[in-house]
Amino acid sequence: MKHALLIFTKNLEEGKVKTRLAATIGTSAALSVYKELLLHTERNVRGVKANMTVLYSDYIAAGDMWDENSYSKAVQRGADLGERMRNAIYNAIARGNKRVAVIGSDCLQLTEEIIDESFRQLEYHDIVIGPAEDGGYYLIAMKSLHEDLFRNMVWSTSEVLKDTLSRCRDLNLSVYCLQEFNDIDTEADLIKASGKLFYGKETHD
């Protein structure tokens, strides 16, 4: 069985990552937090038995934490997140993969075991979703591309998960929900996930 894991990331550029977090701890600290999230994600997916592709927001970064011997690399293509995920899933299936999971790089609680569980549950369900506490999701997996789950969605809102599940019902798709986890988007998220801030706020004269 060919599985594909698609890892959506942003390029490590100050001021372009974790903007809501940066609003309270500063752009440099937010960049450091995001780098740690990327390193954490890489450590927790490297053992997954799947064809793994890192999809960068703007350009392919050579020589970073994603070893080219273990990960394929590509750039996200599309006008919004939905189109970018749809295109990535389409390409993965076109390459012969039978089960495809998409994750971001914002969840400290995501593990290899959770990803493996998503692939296993696709034996019994059409869609697997990892709910996020903010109303979105940290993982979505499927065996066939269901484009309606990605079209005309208002992303980065508390309604994404609710709307996705509603669309699944309308399409008569069976859904398995994984454990709910917390994405790291704000300072409050970081404190909740880690018990403390890893990085202090920037000070300005």
Explain how this protein is built.
With 205 residues, this protein is an alpha/beta fold. The protein has helices at 19-25, 27-45, 81-94, 112-121, 160-170, 187-194, and strands at 3-8, 51-56, 72-75, 99-103, 127-131, 137-142, 175-177. The protein has a 7-stranded mixed beta sheet, sandwiched between helices. A hairpin with a 5-residue loop joins strand 5 and strand 6. It is globular. It starts with a strand and ends in an 11-residue tail after the last helix. The mean pLDDT is 93.
Short description:
The protein is an alpha/beta fold and 205 residues long. It is 34% helix and 17% strand. It is built from six helices and seven strands.
